[in-house]
């Protein structure tokens, strides 16, 4: 069967695009900081460079303008003459003075004299503006670099889900794993079944979301994710798969979205990893191969068998049947 359009890709990216926003697009500007953080890295770096370049040129031009209006650029500098900024003769020297002041380098060759009130006011304005720009842009870059999205790359999901019996009950199962030694604190897993549904009133729901119970009542959805775990959804009378059989699985069309959330131990930030399984990726009558083995003093995880399954005897009938 050809691959159909997914609601959520295997890597967790949601295939949803927002269009025809009209006047609502102004909401992005009202939350400009979040909009800037959500941009791609190339746009963030471009805005970062342009903001500093424009700010530097504008402020250097203002220092040059003060020197020009006071006549510091044309008048010869004698012993009795007191310029606004010492040793500023042209625009490059004004630019260098601004950079030295902004970066608090202070070489000592260029400095503001006490007989320049407009220069003192501009210096205070430059200090305030520089602090605001630094806090905004550096804070944005720091938040973007510390986002836990890359942490989700080391959280693994099995390529396929399986349906087989466990404890004499028919169950839908998939496997999750953590590749890092650092733990996911308060890890919790949720599952959503997305499929087309029509209500008794005739309303058509193209992406109806239904919750799959993976142990909410028993606490099995709270994971201690130090080794690969097999998440189990018991198919019973309350399950959306109550009428699902091996034969009807071939004609069904659905998508199971898996959401794993937890707190990154090293940073304390909340991380979310997602994946999905379509009906083609649900294997009836299969079970996952074991990946844990006991070595000398520790347990070893063999991730080469993480996605491997094998067939087991499973009735082809639905739970209802």
From TrEMBL:
Compartments where located: Membrane
One Gene Ontology CC term in the entry: plasma membrane
Listed PANTHER family: G PROTEIN-ACTIVATED INWARD RECTIFIER POTASSIUM CHANNEL 1 (PTHR11767:SF99), INWARD RECTIFIER POTASSIUM CHANNEL (PTHR11767)
Pfam families, alphabetized: IRK (PF01007), IRK_C (PF17655)
Membrane-topology annotation of the record: Multi-pass membrane protein
Ranges where the Potassium channel inwardly rectifying transmembrane domain occurs: 8-148
Family as reported in the entry's similarity comment: Belongs to the inward rectifier-type potassium channel (TC 1.A.2.1) family. KCNJ3 subfamily.
Main location: membrane
Alphabetically ordered keywords of this record: Ion channel, Ion transport, Membrane, Potassium, Potassium transport, Transmembrane, Transmembrane helix, Transport, Voltage-gated channel
Gene transcribed to yield this protein: Kcnj3_0
One GO BP: regulation of monoatomic ion transmembrane transport
Protein name: G protein-activated inward rectifier potassium channel 1
Transmembrane segments: 45-66, 120-143
Catalytic reaction list: K(+)(in) = K(+)(out)
Domain called Inward rectifier potassium channel C-terminal: residue spans: 155-320
Residues carrying the site annotation Role in the control of polyamine-mediated channel gating and in the blocking by intracellular magnesium: 134
Organism (species): Aegithalos caudatus
GO terms of molecular function: G-protein activated inward rectifier potassium channel activity
Keyword Iron among UniProt keywords: no
């Amino acid at each position: 069967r050809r691959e159909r359009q997914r609601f959520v890709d295997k890597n967790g990216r949601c295939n949803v695009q927002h269009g025809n926003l009209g006047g609502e697009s102004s909401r992005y500007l009202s939350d400009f900081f979040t909009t800037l953080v959500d941009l791609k890295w190339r746009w963030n770096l471009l805005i970062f460079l342009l903001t500093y370049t424009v700010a530097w040129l504008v402020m250097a031009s203002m220092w040059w303008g003060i020197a020009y209006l006071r006549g510091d650029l044309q008048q010869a500098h004698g012993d009795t003459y007191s310029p606004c900024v010492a040793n500023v003769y042209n625009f490059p020297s004004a630019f260098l003075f601004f950079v030295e002041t902004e970066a608090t380098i202070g070489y000592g060759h260029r400095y503001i004299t006490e007989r320049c009130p407009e220069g003192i006011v501009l210096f205070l304005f430059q200090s305030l503006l520089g602090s605001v720009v630094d806090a905004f842009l550096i804070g944005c870059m720091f938040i973007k670099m510390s986002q836990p999205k890359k942490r989700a790359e080391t959280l693994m999901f099995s390529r396929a889900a399986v349906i087989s019996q466990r404890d004499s009950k028919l169950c839908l199962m998939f496997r999750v794993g953590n590749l890092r030694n650092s733990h996911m604190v308060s890890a919790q897993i949720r599952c959503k079944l997305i499929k087309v549904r029509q209500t008794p009133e005739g309303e058509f729901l193209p992406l109806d979301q239904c919750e799959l119970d993976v142990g909410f009542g028993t606490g099995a959805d709270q994971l201690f994710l130090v080794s690969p775990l097999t998440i189990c959804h018991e198919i019973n009378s309350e399950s959306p798969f109550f009428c699902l059989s091996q034969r009807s699985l071939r004609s069904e069309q659905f998508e199971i979205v898996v959401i794993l959330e937890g707190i990154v131990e090293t940073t304390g930030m909340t991380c979310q990893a997602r994946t999905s399984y379509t009906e083609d990726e649900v294997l009836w009558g299969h079970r996952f191969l074991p990946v844990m083995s006991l070595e000398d003093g520790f347990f070893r995880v063999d991730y080469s068998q993480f996605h491997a399954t094998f067939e087991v005897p499973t009735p082809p009938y639905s739970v209802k049947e």
